[in-house]
Amino acid sequence: MIGIITEKDVPIPVRDGLKLCANVSRPDKKGKFPVVMAFTAFAKDVLWSPHSVGWGFADEPYSPTITGTAVFEAEDPAFWVRHEYVLIIVDPRGFNRSPGKMGKAEIDGPVGEVGVLSQGLWARDMYDAIEWAGTQEWSNGCVGLSGVSILAFSQWRAAALKPPHLKAFIPWEGMTDFYRDVMFRGGIPETEWGKLISDQRTPIEPAWPPPAKEDPPVPDEKIEDDFLAEITTPVLICATWSNHGNHSRGAFRAFRKISSRQKWLYTHGRQEWAEFYNTEAQATRKLFFDHFLKGTDNRILKTPKVRLETRENAEQYTVRYEEDFPVPGTKYEKLYLDAADNGLNFQNDKRTSKATYESSSGKAIFDHKFEHDTELTGYMSLRLWASPEEAQDMDLFVTLRKLDSAGKEVFFDSWMLPKKYPVALGWLRLSCRELDDTRSTMWEPYPKRVLGPGKKVNRGDIVPCEIPILPSGTLFRRGEILRLVVSGIFGGGEISGGHYGFNASVNKGTHAIYTGGKYDSYLLIPVVSRL
């Protein structure tokens, strides 16, 4: 077996004279090897194993491939180095062992997510580190990026700069817009997630001082679709049905918007980190890098573009391959809400009806029982005629659930809510209902803004709105039920834990939903097949 040489606190020079601090693991043999690199905001020296869990809980079923040598959310050197790769984990400027000023936007998350994404404040240093790695004596000149979460979404802006030695990259569950994906979903502020991330910060202990005249990268403001369109490097993107609060929206959007001709999408509906380290996922990433970084295997070129995982419950799922996402041939159908019988029906009732609930604790429920086995895979959206009867605004939380033929809920998996996750989630603050027509589709409404005062309504006004529901892939058997829950509280009050909180609500008093007649409230569903 090939031995591993690990060098800690390796200096990587960047263009202003600052030296980033990195750990380099490489094969204990002579030769030139491809490089896999990641930048981490959680410290290159924080190892992760079943006995050292970065988030303070250990309910995730770790893969047997975890060896105790992997840095949090990064590739495992025990796997990659023994397959003759060099693995480099870098502390960004101003983090952990790297000196310098940490780049953050004026309004930002604890680890600088807005600066990383919309301002590209890590990208220049990542470019320089990639080029350094591509020219070392142990390098074959081919560099790839890989990692989870911030180790993933930091890759977008770096790839958009087109470093010559960057040959491929793997953003594994990475958001593309911190506000839209996490902190202001549909305009509703999230109040607890940032606190959890803040608790994970590692104290800064630079390995050496910064240069006398540090010149850190300056903001390069771009919206998500613009920097994604600039990317042409081959890419393998992982997107999940089970992380609707962080990375699902952005990862799926990236696959659609990125300009790379050679791009693949790996979908799954299970726990984030367990899936990253499992055997199939590692083998898929190796297949991708073996071709683009080693040039030794062409099988990825014969692999259809989309690995599609369709769930039946938390344990059962099937995998097939498709050529695109959304799945070609998807039939979008409308299930009209009927407040008179709490139903979801293929025909809009001519009669007008009204459902009300107390915004601080109540919910409106609408059910559809399937007459045939039906697969719903892709984006959904909800059109509502809604009224905040005692206020000028309202927060709308949408939860889609699956019930079996006996009416018992069927749960799915997630690291946030293990074995307790619903089918899909959606959010909208009514004042953020105005859509960006240039970016919206029938199945993915795109709010023009998620920050700012928006467009409020008069008390009692009835207005239409379009609520985006994040992608999912679910099989419903004959007699099983799709349940739509609309509420003024997250998950209709049925989701506890999960590390999310929405404690800055504008809700007050009673909410009303109007259906039937001119109030054509409906749920748009993506029917891939009726089996």
Walk me through the structure.
The model is unreliable at 51-59 (pLDDT under 50). The protein has two domains: 4-219, Alpha/Beta hydrolase fold, catalytic domain (Rossmann fold, 3-Layer(aba) Sandwich); 331-530, Jelly Rolls. The protein is globular. It contains ten helices and 26 strands. Strand 13 and strand 14 form a beta hairpin. The protein is α+β, with helices and mostly antiparallel strands and 531 residues long.
Write the layout of secondary structure elements.
Elements: E1 4-13, E2 19-27, E3 33-39, E4 47-48, E5 70-71, H1 77-80, E6 86-91, H2 113-117, H3 123-133, E7 139-148, H4 150-160, E8 166-172, H5 178-183, E9 184-185, E10 188-189, H6 193-198, H7 224-229, E11 235-240, H8 248-257, E12 263-268, H9 272-277, H10 279-294, E13 306-311, E14 317-322, E15 331-338, E16 343-345, E17 353-358, E18 363-369, E19 374-388, E20 395-403, E21 409-410, E22 424-429, E23 463-476, E24 481-487, E25 510-515, E26 522-530
Parallel strand pairs: 3-6, 3-7, 7-8, 8-11, 11-12, 12-13
Antiparallel strand pairs: 1-2, 2-6, 4-5, 9-10, 13-14, 15-16, 15-26, 17-25, 18-24, 19-23, 19-25, 19-26, 20-21, 20-22, 20-24
